[in-house]
Predict the 3D structure of the following.
Amino acid sequence: MLEHLQKASIEQRFSLFDRDGWRALRADTPMALSQEELVRLRGPDEQISLEEVAEIYLPLTRLLNLHVRATIDLHRSTFRFLGTGSRQVPYIVGLAGSVAVGKSTTARILRSLLARWPSHPNVTLISTDGFLHPNAVLQARGLMERKGFPESYDVKRFLTFLADIKAGKPSVTAPAYDHIAYDIVPDRLQVIEQPDILIVEGLNVLQVNTMPNEDVIFASDFFDFSIYVEASVELTRQWYVERFLAFRETAFRDPRSYFSRYAALSDDEARATALSIWTRINERNLVENIQPTRFRADLILEKGEGHRIESVALRKL
């Protein structure tokens, strides 16, 4: 019954496209990526092809380009109406999804493709990982097992960052995150300087505000467009385990790695460890916090086997 209601709800609110229907919306958008560039952009455990880029990502970048141009025209008209000097207002794209679903690869491909449009060459990508509380804070609050859950983020700092970006400040800083150390890097900042488009990628970017006694402001209030990358829990679990096994041979072997203790595990031990981490932390976060936000997105990319996008849902106007 619940699945039926969800299906009815998505059909009421979204236009649904299979691959053939979505591919046709590419029109004459040219292929701008080479195979070598795509290999650098995709994740270590993903085999996204140029065909996938042509059929899924080129129609999406065409749609976003149309949105960006329309938004720029709206801003210019508003400034003329107010009689104020015009200023650049960055267009913000929010991109959400589970750990291991491939949202970072999606963000990198979109950034590369969007930056090739002449009307908005300055496209910046930022991850919300930088707005996690430092590990020392998480440990003090007993939240290390809930890293990535909404309460593990410095929400106030994240919202201030987005507000400053939208205000058109010339230079806005964000904390830097080191995935090898699995922690915020002290005294290192990312500097964002008035991008044409800012892509904000993270687990919970479509999550509602969880701060008590604060005005009700959501990160998505600052987004001009939002995307959710979807896959079944079973597939995402499989991809997480595969990625963990791949990292055991690569990133985990770095002695600086927070996860270096897993590098020497046997195949069976590594699978058991990955499944334990997934079940305790990532699947709970996905089911409780991330997945329920997908209907807040403007567009849902639904993946099947091999990270192949099977369908696209676009919110109706």
About this structure: The beta strands are 14-18, 91-97, 123-127, 172-178, 183-192, 197-202, 225-230, 299-303, 309-315. The first strand starts at residue 14 and ends at 18. Residues 1-5 have pLDDT under 50 and may be disordered.
